[in-house]
Amino acid sequence: MSVKRKDLIRYLEQCGFFLKREGKRHSFYVHEDGRATAVKRHNIFDRISANEVCKDAKLQPIF
Fold first, then answer.
1. What does the pLDDT look like over 11-43, one tens digit per residue?
2. How far is the first Cα of the chain from the last one, in angstroms, to the nearest whole number?
3. Which domains occur in the chain, in start order?
């Protein structure tokens, strides 16, 4: 199963994350309590990679 990047970003934003900055290959999202995560600029992620981004952000993996 694959996950679209926009769906992953939508989930992060619903959980209170916002775009901090754009890097060369990643977008960096932070939460107001200090948690941070990087999202690669792939259009489609596999389920495992999408859940790793969620775990890095200390969120429940839903994909």
1. 999 999 999 999 999 999 999 999 999 999 999
2. 9
3. 2-56 (3.30.920.30)
